[in-house]
Task: inverse folding
């Protein structure tokens, strides 16, 4: 942390007295009402979402694997990562593995359960927690349950959802699927429900046995393997949209089951939509939902160079969550494995990428970094091209670099590999690393409440964070121009904790901010 800059000492003596600053002081007081996790006093962690297949290869088959990931834990620790979300790792016929064949094992390309246990042990030694991507809305059509179901076994037939009513098929023609025989020929008769795809038959959560099976799977991973929680796939889809309450009851039951083994399990849910959609789940045992609404506001603001209400969005969401559960947590992202990569969204603008990262890492919540984001990897849909091999070095220069697919977007011609970013003080990687570690070391950033700072400039984002022991002020210029704001009131004693430019440019009442400048001050 750098000591206060001389220019900042100058700022301390500027005690202005206009309405703007009064409004600011008022905000400070009013908004302290909603700290994150007020009762638990729980710290947040910076998570890293990793597609194992594309991360690091330990046995030279070109496919990333669990031992490879384990060998890179030290890299993640140095980056400041405190939690890992592994995209699905179970046996599955697809490359993405969101159609599970066996919930109790690891895909053979990725290694074994023994390898996975070793990963958990080593991660815990480094104070990194692990959450499992639990995909239980549906199974693979290759799962033994479904195979038995279509061969006429009534017990397992009841595990899935069936209909012979043509009205159902008319209503949802892409969700009701005909059974296929061994030759792939579609059969007449009852159809099964598969919300996403015919190879992903939905499980029947009205069946008590199915509920028991899924709870048993969760308990196995928490208890026997020692993981720390789950990322739950497709949470709102376990029941149709008009049966929200049944869905909530199921998730409460799931949580109760997990509590028997680990009451501290961190459970983060994939729920696309705004806070009003996520909020009900937070009283049903879900710790946090991915904050897609905020990611949208951040991305659009950075792209347009205008603050489209970033802090207001955070506070509005927090207020909705708070009503549902005062102990709510949040899971923030820029993008994930289902979205075009942030660097591509931002048209390869390095400054914009840094500003986005600064927002993600200074706002409240548990930030989830999508692997490769920290080196500015590129990629847009189809999905395979947003899940490309992590670029450790120039191709062929690191035997662990995966090559299960030929990258379309991120090669060493388009993205500077990690190896070369490490020594570059101005690299995206070092920006991420500094900000994550700064967040980890400063309670105001990792657990503080948030209140907006009015700047009178729509291109600036500025906010205040307060943890009870520490305060932070964040000022970010979203635009490509030099911008001016009024000097905030009450800066006495603040020190510069991070900036990507050396100085504020000021006169007696105003601060001039260079394009895309980021300032983090703490007291
Ligand atoms: Ca491998």
Result:
């Amino acid at each position: 942390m750098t000591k206060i800059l001389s220019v900042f000492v100058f700022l301390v003596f500027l005690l202005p007295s206009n309405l703007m600053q009064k409004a600011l002081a008022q905000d400070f007081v009013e908004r302290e009402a909603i700290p994150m996790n007020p009762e638990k006093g729980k710290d947040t962690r910076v998570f890293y979402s990793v597609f194992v297949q594309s991360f690091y290869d330990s046995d030279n088959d070109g496919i990333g694997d669990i031992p490879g990931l384990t060998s890179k834990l030290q890299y993640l620790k140095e980056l400041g990562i405190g939690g890992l979300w592994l995209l699905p790792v179970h046996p599955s016929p697809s490359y993405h593995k969101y159609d599970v064949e066996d919930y109790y094992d690891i895909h053979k390309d990725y290694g074994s359960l023994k390898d996975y246990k070793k990963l958990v042990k080593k991660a815990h030694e480094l104070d990194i927690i692990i959450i499992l991507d639990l995909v239980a809305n549906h199974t693979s059509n290759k799962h033994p349950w479904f195979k038995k179901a279509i061969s006429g076994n009534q017990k397992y037939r009841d595990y899935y959802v069936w209909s012979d009513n043509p009205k159902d098929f008319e209503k949802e023609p892409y969700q009701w699927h005909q059974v296929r025989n061994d030759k792939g020929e579609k059969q007449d008769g009852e159809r099964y429900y598969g919300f996403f795809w015919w190879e992903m038959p939905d499980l029947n959560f009205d069946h008590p046995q199915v509920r028991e099976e899924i709870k048993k799977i969760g308990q196995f991973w928490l208890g026997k393997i020692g993981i720390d929680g789950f990322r739950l796939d497709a949470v709102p889809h376990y029941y149709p949209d008009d049966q929200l309450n049944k869905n909530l009851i199921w998730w409460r039951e799931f949580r109760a089951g997990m509590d028997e083994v680990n009451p501290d399990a961190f459970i983060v849910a994939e729920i696309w939509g705004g806070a009003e959609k996520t909020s009900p789940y937070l009283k049903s045992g879900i710790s946090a939902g991915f904050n897609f609404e905020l990611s949208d506001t951040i991305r659009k603001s950075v792209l347009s160079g205008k603050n489209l209400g970033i802090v207001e969005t955070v506070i509005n969401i927090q207020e909705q969550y708070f009503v549902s559960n005062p102990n709510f947590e949040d899971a923030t992202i820029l993008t994930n494995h289902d979205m075009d990569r942030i660097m591509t969204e931002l048209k390869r603008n390095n400054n914009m990428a840094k500003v986005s990262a600064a927002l993600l890492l200074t706002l409240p919540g548990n930030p989830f970094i999508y692997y490769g984001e920290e080196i500015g990897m590129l990629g847009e849909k189809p999905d395979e091209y947003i899940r490309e091999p992590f670029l450790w070095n120039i191709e062929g220069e690191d035997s662990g670099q995966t090559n299960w697919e030929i990258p379309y977007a991120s090669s060493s011609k388009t993205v500077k590999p990690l190896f070369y970013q490490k020594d570059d003080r101005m690299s995206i990687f070092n920006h991420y690393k500094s900000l994550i570690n700064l967040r980890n070391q400063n309670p105001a950033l990792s657990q503080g409440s948030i209140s907006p700072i009015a700047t009178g400039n729509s291109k600036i984002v500025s906010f205040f964070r307060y943890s009870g022991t520490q305060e932070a002020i964040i000022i970010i210029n979203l635009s490509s121009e030099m911008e001016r704001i009024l000097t905030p009131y009450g800066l006495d004693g603040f020190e510069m904790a991070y900036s990507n430019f050396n100085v504020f440019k000021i006169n007696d009442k105003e601060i001039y901010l260079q394009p895309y400048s980021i300032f983090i001050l703490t007291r």
Observations:
- The chain has three domains: 3-29+453-522, 44-135+208-441, 144-193.
- Residues 57-59, 61, 63, 65 surround calcium ion (CB under 6 Å).
- The two ends are 12 Å apart (CA to CA).
- The chain has a mean pLDDT of 91.
